[in-house]
Amino acid sequence: MELSKETLLAMYYAMLRSRRLDERAWVLHRQGKIVFHISGMGHEAAQVGAAFALKPGKDWLVPYYRDLALMLCFGLTPREFMLSLFGKQSEASSGARQMPSHFGLRRANVVSTSAPVATQIPHAAGIGLGMKMRGDDAVVVTGIGEGSTSQGEWYEGLNWAAVHKLPMICIVQNNQYAISVPSHKQMAIPNVADRAAAFGMPGAVVDGNDVLAVYRVMMDAVTRARTGGGPTLIEAKTYRPVPHSSDDDDRSYRTREEVAEWKKRDPILLFKGYLESKGRLPPALNDDYETRVLAEVDDAQKFAEAAPYPAIESAFGPVYAAEAHHA
Amino acid sequence: MPEMTLIEAIRQGMDEELARDDCVFITGEDVGPRGGVFRATQGLFEKYGPKRIIDSPLAELSIVGVGIGAAVYGMRPICEIQFADFIFPAFNQILNEAARMFYRSGGEWAAPMVIRAPYGGGVGGGLYHSQSVEAFFAHIPGLKVVIPSNPKDAKGLLKSAVRDPNPVLFLEPKKGYRLIKGFVPEGEYTVPIGPAHVSREGADLTVFAYGIMHYYCLQAAALVAKEGISAEVVDLRTLLPVDKAAIVASVRKTGKAMIVHEDNLTGGYGGEVAAIIADEAFADLDAPVKRLCGPDVPGVPFSHPMQDWFMPNPEKIAKAMKELAAY
Ligand SMILES: Cc1ncc(C[n+]2csc(CCOP(=O)(O)OP(=O)(O)O)c2C)c(N)n1
Ligand SMILES: [Mg+2]
Fold it and tell me: Domain for residue B188, yes or no?
């Protein structure tokens, strides 16, 4: 399973793109241009590693709010993300009805998501059930934080996946906090993935800051799912180097030293170092990437700033679907 | 036209929809070989097999949540909640997910599914096998709420519900399952979701009801007719979206209105009907709007005399009709 140089660089670019877009969102928030941002920073390796094991267009995704990098890999454009930050017309997930990062993208099989955590897990199981009933060899992936695995929805959804051997992969992105609450107050076990045994499915713990490690674990899970072997629970251990959202101040619940320590293990830094050590990322190429990303982010921001707000009338509805929406 | 019971009509409706469209499937507790605790799905497992008649784990939120996932994927689930009393673990999935899917995704996603639940008292079910839950759900834009009162409507409305591109909560008056019999047309037909039905024409007053209370109202109307009172009976059939025009038209005609439901009075559906009348037919009223409802106690008590005290019945309804007519 040797990845080509092109693929490795594409992974790196995907991570960088998500990071720079994300950073810009924080800047826009500080400038008072947007009212809310919830970040995927620090989670890029977990998400890009997962995305590269999938087939966008064929596979299905039921994401959670930190899945920006995963969404970009599935085809969300920076412009579309910016439209959601600004709440502008034609925003792709909801027509700007929802807060930013409540992802959904019909054209890419990314199901609309809400705010109550873990509600998406039974949906993923239902999609897997549909795939199995139809004999579709696609897989469905769902993302969630470790704190949200305390919800009954998580248990009930994974239980279905296990009972029916559904082609479903649940990626728990364990960044060790649920807002302020550390994971040891969330569960009395060291690894969420240990719970896989109780469901009757394979579980894997992986370094979520190592994109290649995540990719390998995902490939196993995807192969298993596609060939009728059933679901997998993957836990990617990572860290959120920024506050929970633009409304949070993390100084009240963790030390600056802890954050600084984790920033040394930033997934983009790690992967950059790896590529450099293999002679795959000369400084000039990295500069090229940075320039390209900056242009994309600038363009997206300009586009969204210039875009109109939705007409008030678009809040009226429709509330009910008038025709069948079949996949 | 064959005569059949309410539950036979519901079963036949499901059977025909399963035969018509192989996207349709049923899941719920004991729906498989056992055929449901009320036998609503009797014989369907034998006919359609375990892939389409799926015994679910004993976990209501997942019955609905998995149904939502299957629905967005393109299937047409019929999810059975064994008793409406046990629907509340799934409340979050119905309110936040199924009902909001279409609006929150700007019309990109929809959750076409039927959630069937036997509801109501009078069967010795006590607090937890007797509840009427319609008021909680008739408050949810994006959801449709249907309650049939007779076999013909039950079959036709259920078929419409399966074909509807929106989530439909289909509440079945369980006391009427074998008590209410009626003629069902041969061959293919549907009854549209939305319109109410004037089931008995009258001149002196209108009584609005649904489910088994509608069945009792017809009996009560026959009782008071002997005393010269001409009561019009309107079967609401669809509680959400409500048929305002039918309510207003009947009140304009009779000038007096009464609402009957077994759900407790305060915050019950009758308040909504009364408000519609106050808004749109105030000048046509010759008497205050009357509500005959279950008492405001936390459930239907088990012991027979207490249950009888709780439940409206034809005699109580006839008495209230006479009072209203005399106003
Ligand atoms: C049912 C529910 N309760 C509370 C919240 C508020 N809330 C949003 S995110 C969050 C923490 C989630 O933590 P975790 O699952 O670890 O994911 P992370 O944000 O760390 O990625 C909370 C409490 C919510 N969205 N939904
Ligand atoms: Mg967390």
Answer: no
Ligand 1 within 6 A of A64 CB?
no
Residue B191 lies in a domain: no
Please name the residues in contact with B31: beta carbons below 8 A apart, sequence gap of 6 or more.
Answer: B40, B41, B44, B45, B53, B54, B55, B56, B80
B131 and B21: one domain?
Answer: yes
Roughly what angle, to the nearest 10 degrees, separates helices A5-30 and A211-226? 110
Beta carbons of B156 and B181 less than 8 angstroms apart = no
Fill in the DSSP letter of residue B96: I
Point out the ligand 1 atom lying closest to the alpha carbon of residue A148. Answer: 15
Does B192 fall in a domain?
no
Which residue, chain included where needed, has tokens 């010269």?
B228
Nearest CB neighbour to B142, from listed A97, A319, A322: A319
User: What separation in Å is there between the alpha carbon of A253 and the centre of ligand 2?
Assistant: 13
Q: Give the nearest ligand 1 atom to A244 CA.
A: 19
**Which of A117, A171, A177, when mutated, tests ligand 1's pocket best, judged by the most ligand atoms within 8 Å of its CB?**
A117
Residues of A in contact with B25 (CB under 8 A): 133
CA of A148 to the centre of ligand 1 (A): 6
* A253 catalytic residue (yes or no): yes
> Closest by alpha carbon to A19, among A233, A267, A195, A238?
A267
In this structure, are strands B181-183 and B205-209 parallel, antiparallel, or unpaired? unpaired
Q: Measure B166 CA to ligand 2 centroid, in angstroms.
A: 34
Chain B CA closest to residue A62: B69
CATH number of the domain enclosing A22: 3.40.50.970
Element (H, E) at B5: strand B3-5
Full-model pTM: 0.97
Counted domains in chain A: 1
What is the extent of the structural domain holding B162? 3-183
Selecting among B129, B139, B261, B304, the annotated active-site residue is B129
The single residue of A253, A254, A274, A289 carrying the catalytic annotation is A253
A183 lines ligand 1 (CB under 6 A): no
Of A119, A130, A319, Cβ closest to residue B73: A130
Per-residue pLDDT of chain A (327 residues; tens, 9 = 90+): 589 999 999 999 999 999 999 999 999 999 999 999 999 999 999 999 999 999 989 999 999 999 999 999 999 999 999 999 999 999 999 999 999 999 999 999 999 999 999 999 999 999 999 999 999 999 999 999 999 999 999 999 999 999 999 999 999 999 999 999 999 999 999 999 999 999 999 999 999 999 999 999 999 999 999 999 999 999 999 999 999 999 999 999 999 999 999 999 999 999 999 999 999 999 999 999 999 999 999 999 999 999 999 999 999 999 999 964 444
Q: Which amino acid is at B242?
A: V
- Interchain proximity A127–B69, CB inside 8 Å: yes
Spatial distance between the Cα atoms of A74 and A51, rounded to a whole number of angstroms: 7
B24 plus B74 within the same structural domain: yes
Domains in chain B, number: 2
